[in-house]
């Protein structure tokens, strides 16, 4: 079996602040030093890359107020990931650095220039996590009245990515860019440095059918959250078939599944920690309600917690999450669904490092997948203790089995990914 590609998904937000292991980082998280330390730890463990998530609103979807968001910090407060990416680039040598930028909120030339600059600053380690955004407040923050409907956002994103690729190519050959498309125009020479990689590595998280088409056409790394090994295998097979129909090499795109491992010195200890983490407390229920409301752009506070999600519920936000909750609550209830594991993980991983590595290896044997993206649930949860559990427990066990790299290959971020 080939080695896994491994990354970590983080939010530039306050780290753990309600646990005994919170430390003092909540007081000065905004200066970025905690996340620079995280990046150094990821590089020490020889992970492939870090993804810096972004959104630009204080959500008010749950109950029509920002109050609960500030109580649980799933999406706010948050700093911009691009300056943090520069700091991480200066503090590391090999780690890929993927920044989230929206095709709905940035002009194409501005985004292309920023990404080219990050690729230069990092000496060829930049990646772009392509998102289309779905928050109406985000649109209003940049002078728009509203965002486009779901599929049209992807139509625009297709043209946006094609145009940015032309802009990056122009830095290599000096050709002026003349573009008059359906959504965007560009004229003249592009004033930007030449990216060492030619273009940043493109990352995307397509969940809906239209999102999967977009990911299949453009992405080199796909972040996925299907639930369970069978669903993971179907997702990867579907994406590869879409790439083949588009005339693209399916092996040139890596699918990484989101996971939140819970580790202990014994399996029993890990199970006890896992039960505490997802216990159906008032706090955990509120956090999941707020997270779901903000991600799906639906106020889940208006639904009966002891009933399933209404079958006719629709959204212009994250459709995959809404559909996941409809499936989870079929014949059950929202309350029962939220008492399960996290909404943002594909595979429960609970046990000793050996047990967790076994489960990861078995899953990849079935899925034929490419690796995993570690995630600890968004703002207010990540701690140095959790990093240690994964980086000094699970990753060395994967390395001993030849499933994770012990040393970095030479070259750019894209070159290194090619070895996975």
UniProtKB/TrEMBL annotation:
Molecular function as annotated in GO: monooxygenase activity; oxidoreductase activity, acting on paired donors, with incorporation or reduction of molecular oxygen
SUPFAM superfamilies: Bacterial luciferase-like
Residues binding FMN: 54, 100, 150, 154, 208
Domain Luciferase-like positions: 8-363
Keyword Flavoprotein: yes
Family matches, as InterPro entries: Diverse_substr_monoxygenases (IPR051260), Luciferase-like_dom (IPR011251), Luciferase-like_sf (IPR036661), NTA_MOA (IPR016215)
Keywords, ordered alphabetically: Flavoprotein, FMN, Monooxygenase, Oxidoreductase
Coiled coil (residue ranges): none
Family that this chain belongs to: Belongs to the NtaA/SnaA/DszA monooxygenase family.
Listed NCBIfam families: FMN_nitrolo (TIGR03860)
Record-given protein name: FMN-dependent oxidoreductase (Nitrilotriacetate monooxygenase family)
């Amino acid at each position: 079996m080939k080695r896994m590609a491994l990354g970590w998904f983080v939010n530039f937000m306050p780290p753990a602040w309600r646990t005994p292991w919170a430390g003092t980082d909540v007081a000065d998280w905004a200066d970025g030093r905690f996340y620079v330390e995280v990046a150094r730890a990821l590089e020490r463990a020889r992970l492939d890359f870090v993804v810096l998530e972004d959104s630009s609103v204080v959500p008010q979807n749950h109950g029509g107020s920002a109050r609960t968001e500030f109580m649980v910090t799933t999406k706010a407060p948050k700093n911009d990931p691009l300056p943090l990416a520069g700091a991480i680039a200066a503090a590391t040598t090999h780690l890929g650095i993927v920044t989230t930028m929206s095709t709905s909120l940035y002009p194409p030339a501005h985004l292309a220039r920023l990404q080219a600059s990050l690729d230069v600053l990092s000496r060829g380690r930049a990646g772009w996590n392509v998102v289309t955004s779905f928050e109406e407040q985000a649109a209003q923050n940049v002078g728009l009245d509203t965002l486009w409907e779901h599929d049209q956002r992807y139509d625009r994103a297709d043209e946006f990515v094609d145009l940015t690729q032309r802009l990056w190519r122009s830095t290599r050959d000096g050709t002026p860019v003349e573009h008059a498309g359906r959504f965007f125009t560009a004229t003249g020479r592009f004033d930007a440095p030449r990216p060492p990689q030619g273009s940043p590595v493109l990352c995307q998280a397509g969940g809906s059918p239209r999102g999967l088409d977009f990911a299949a056409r453009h992405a080199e790394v796909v972040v996925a959250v299907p639930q369970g090994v069978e669903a993971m295998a179907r997702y990867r097979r579907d994406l590869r078939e879409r790439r083949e129909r588009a005339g693209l090499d399916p092996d040139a795109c890596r699918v990484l599944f989101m996971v939140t491992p819970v580790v202990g010195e014994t399996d029993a200890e890990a199970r006890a920690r896992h039960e505490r983490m997802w216990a159906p407390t008032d706090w955990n229920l509120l956090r999941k309600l707020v997270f779901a409301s903000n991600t799906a752009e639906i106020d889940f506070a208006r639904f009966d917690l002891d009933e399933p999600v209404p079958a006719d519920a629709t959204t212009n936000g994250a459709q995959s999450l809404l559909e996941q909750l409809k499936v989870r609550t079929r014949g059950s209830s929202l309350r029962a669904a939220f008492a399960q594991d996290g909404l943002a993980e594909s595979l429960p991983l609970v046990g000793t490092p050996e047990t967790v590595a076994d489960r990861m290896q078995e899953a990849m044997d079935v899925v034929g997948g490419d690796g995993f993206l570690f995630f600890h649930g968004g703002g207010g949860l990540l701690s140095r203790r959790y990093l240690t559990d994964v980086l000094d427990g699970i990753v060395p066990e994967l390395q001993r089995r030849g499933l994770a790299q012990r040393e970095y290959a030479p070259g750019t971020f894209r070159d290194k990914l090619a070895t996975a």
